[in-house]
Every structure is written in C-alpha cells, then in structure tokens.
Amino acid sequence: MPISTEFQKRINELVDEIDLKKVELAKVGNFDYRSLSNAIVYGIIPTTSTLIKMADYFKVSIDYLLGRTDKNDYIESSNTTFQERFEKLCEEKGVSHYKVSQDCFFDKSNISRWLSKGYLPTLEILDMITKYFKVSPDYLLGRSDYRL
C-alpha cells in the first residue's frame, strides 16, 4: 500500500471534524478500523474500495481525500459502476481493453478480473487509466458525472 502525508493530513482533518470515536466511525462508515487507523497514524492509502467508502462517508472526491486538491466540490452521481464507465470510455475513445493495458503498462488480466468479477483497480492503475482517458477518479469509479 502506498503512503501519503497529504492523505494522512486530509483524513485527520476530516476525522477531527466529526464527533465520533474512530471505532464508531469505521463501523458507521462501513470500512475496516485497521484501514482507518493506518491512514490516520501512518498515511497508508487503503484499497480502492475502502478509499471509496471513506470518500462516500465524508462526501468528498477521491482527489480531495488524497490531498491532491483543496477544492471540495464533489457532486454525487447516479448509480454507475467502474466497469460500466471503463467500457464506455473504451468505446468513446475507440480502443480495446488490450490497447488500454498496453498503453498504461499493466497486465491485461486485470481487466478480466474487473469486468468478470467486479474487482476494482489498484490506486496506481486507477491513476494511469484516469490520465489515459483524461477523467477524474470519481468519474471513472462511477461516483460523479463530472469528468475533470
């Protein structure tokens, strides 16, 4: 798991704004307490699915949560999945799954797991795909309809 002091600072700010113990927060937010604790203490960025749950709970964008922007202008979208967005973006750009994996330098077997089993990409691969399609992580993950 990657470590980020920006993420650590932002998650601490958000946690400090609420009136819940960390154990209660993890329960209410439906994410693992260990992931929350590791984020607060060490700045360890959790899995993509846990990152989404944290961002959903605080109603912020992924980029805001990661400390990549100070602009908290997240607007929630309709129910669209990462898989649906990925397929749509490939179609719009006229590229195959294989082409995306080649251009972004990750193994194409990842895409099979995403599409057939509903898995999500790692943050590193997610970042490569967002740059490739020129969209925000929240758009790609189906959290927002705002592309960038």
Q: How would you describe what is shown here?
A:
With 148 residues, this protein is an all-alpha fold. It has two domains: 5-65, 434 Repressor (Amino-terminal Domain) (Orthogonal Bundle); 82-140, 434 Repressor (Amino-terminal Domain), CATH 1.10.260. The protein is 60% helix and 0% strand. The protein is built from ten helices and no strands. The chain has helices at 5-16, 22-29, 33-42, 48-58, 62-65, 82-93, 97-104, 109-117, 123-133, 137-140. Helix 1 crosses helix 3. The longest helix is centred in the first third of the chain and has 12 residues, at 5-16. The radius of gyration is 16 Å and the shape is elongated. It starts with a helix and ends in an 8-residue tail after the last helix. The mean pLDDT is 96.
Summary of the model, kept short:
The protein has 2 domains: 5-65, Orthogonal Bundle (434 Repressor (Amino-terminal Domain)); 82-140, 434 Repressor (Amino-terminal Domain). The chain is built from 10 helices and no strands.
Q: In the CATH scheme, what's the topology name of the largest domain?
A: 434 Repressor (Amino-terminal Domain)
User: How far apart lie the N and C ends?
Assistant: 26 Å
Largest sheet: none
Give the class from helix and strand content and strand pairing: mainly alpha
Mean pLDDT: 96
Count of DSSP strands: 0
Residue share in helices? 55-70%
The CATH class of the largest domain is identified as Mainly Alpha
Rounded Rg: 16 Å
Number of helices: 10
